[in-house]
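Today's session is about reading a structure prediction critically. Students often jump straight to the picture, but the first step is always the sequence itself: look for stretches that repeat, for charged clusters, for runs of hydrophobic residues. Only then move on to the predicted structure, which in these notes is written as discrete structure tokens rather than atom positions. Here is the chain we will use throughout the hour.
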Amino acid sequence: MGIKLKTRKPTGIVPWPLILLEGEEGAGKTYSAAEFSASDRIGQMYWVDLAEGSADEYAAIPGADYEIIDHDGSYRDILEQIRAVHAEARRAAAAGEPPVVLTIDSGSSLWRMLKSWTHERARRGKSNAQRLQDDPDAAIDVGMNLWNDATERWLEVVHLLQTFPGIAIITARGKQITAIDDNGKPVQDRGRVLKEWKVQAQKDLAFDCSVWVRMRRGRAPQVVKARSLQLRIEDGKPLTLPDFSVEDLVFNRLGCSVESQPRQMPALVGDRVQAWLDEHDVLELRDVERLRELWWDAAGDETGLTRAEVVSIRAAIERKVAEIENPPAEMGEGPVSDADRLRAVVERRAEEGDDEPDDDPEPDKRPVRKAPAKRTAAKRSPAKRATAKTTAARR
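Below is the predicted structure for this chain, in token form.
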């Protein structure tokens, strides 16, 4: 039987935008986002302040009305709160309410946090740890696999913003810097060092946003890019907007309305792990018994999952159960790492025993690997037994 073709007709509806407000310090990025919360054309605005510290003060802007997301500064908590806002925006859209707005201030701070996490992991690596033990000021090597992990965490946030069932705004720092070639040297043209504009965040942020606004002190804001049929930006010719406001940009120039919808962008994955987790809401569940049932269900023949995919799914479920049964420490004690949570699961399994699961196990039981048996003299080769006896006699 052949695979069934799946198609649909395009809607032609203008989607809700992901807006990047980037530029120099003091250019009005945060102010413009907070000012937008006073619009009577939007619903509730939620504000995620990441190392900027402006959220409380900017609420004094006339008409400003937004809720500040309370987080503990850890990536895990920030991501969970963004997911919660995403779910609330989906509920509001389904109920026909005005669009929810999510503002992240700033993306530069989020990426800086992930870069610091990457370097901390690199320092703990075996070769780097030895090098730093010999010379605490030595340069360390940061593997590409570590940068890939940081990028993956960044993209988890960006995908939620791209598919947000409302209006998403992310701010970032931007400035003019010396152009650098692939060898790390300044680019020159006829003896003159060339300059380029740099958005201080993950390198693909400008690509991932649907609208890109640049703000500079003493100059009118410019729309550098707009993925829109309503607002056309010619190549290399940004649109200057002297009377810029986010409200005018969204509802007048982009043409968004109550009929707008989020962009249809299923997450692209190389396997079916994330799709399976999303389908069963594993990351949102708080019911341990249900999670244990899903642990067993993942290996069912009807899922069509490979053995490697089942292992990855079960590991994710185990981490989730560990989070529920062993909640993170209070802020004063510092967040609990993934390694600590996984270690807690392993230790708990060791305490539960080493029996193999039954052929038809109960849903609330977990398989536990047998601890490797200690090697005895009877299992050694004759030569090794003789060596062991000689050593014992000498002692």
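Discussion point for the tutorial: Residues 75-94 form the longest helix (20 residues).
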